Amino acid sequence: METILVQLGDYHGAFVDARGRSGGLALLWDKNLELIVVSYSSHHIDATLKWHNQDPLWWFTGAGGPLRAQAHIDAFRDAFLDNDLHDLGFSGYEFTWCNKRVGAEVVEERLDRFCASTERSIQFPEARVQHIDSYISDHLPILLRCKPRNWEAT
């Protein structure tokens, strides 16, 4: 991942190494943002993002790992509803994960997504999510491009 980071240029990165051919997480962000990794494990990265030294604007959670109990999935869904979160949509390929099998055994799902509250969507009206083609991993990288309303480059 460090090689990819160097190729991209103006980005910082946080990585959780894969175990053999499974797992592994990467989070890349523009050097103009202040990102603080709050916690991480082989299944998640939690971070806060600040835009030009303002109060934390975003909380990022990237997660993976084994199947979860339905009660955990329901609690996660309820947290979305309770905090006015909605999916930001995307452009690109419909699915973000594939089991890398062929024919009738292939399974594809949209597991990875960016979400925001209505307040943040108003503050960042130009936020766009893109699924990026990749043949390296079973997950597609997803990219969030955004800048706040009335933003001027420094």
Automatic annotation (TrEMBL):
Superkingdom classification of source: Eukaryota
Lineage of producing organism: Eukaryota, Viridiplantae, Streptophyta, Embryophyta, Tracheophyta
Organism, as annotated: Carnegiea gigantea
Name of the protein in its database record: Endonuclease/exonuclease/phosphatase domain-containing protein
SUPFAM superfamilies noted in UniProt: DNase I-like (SSF56219)
InterPro entries noted in UniProt: Endo/exonu/phosph_ase_sf (IPR036691)
